[in-house]
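Hey, can you fold this one?
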Amino acid sequence: MSTYLESLDQAFLAHFCRRLSDLISDQGAAAIQSYGITTPSTAISSMYYLEKNNGATVAELSEALCVTHQMATQRTHTLVKLGLICRKPNPKDKRAKTLHLTELGKQEVMQLKPLTSKMTEIFTELTQQIECDLLQKVREAEKALIDRPLMQRLEALDKPQH
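Sure. Predicted structure:
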């Protein structure tokens, strides 16, 4: 890390979170490729959700993963292009399509399970190494910012003190 980055404080938390996210994604992608898996690291949770629920609409997927409809659409488009999922008519809603794992997608999920199990072990070890449960703290921080957004916190700081 550069001296300049070392000098940045809490105001640049988003920058450091993005760097960590990118680092985990890049290293995860390399691990996935080393196992011969084509599922992008950013779409593994989508694949698992589709397997667990025996298919879903894009709206259901976006709600479950707490991502925008557009983000879920982009992820599923990539998975369709890779032949891992397919779109089928939705019997409940003629306008919507239901996403399902293809046979290749089912095989990938089976290949992913031992790898994600190992990743759990790796991140548990990291948690012990740095003496901080990152997943728990990230979830707590996200909830805290949803409950009291940055703008609300900024406005509170800008109010004159009596």
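The chain has a mean pLDDT of 94. Let me know if you want another pass with a different chain boundary.
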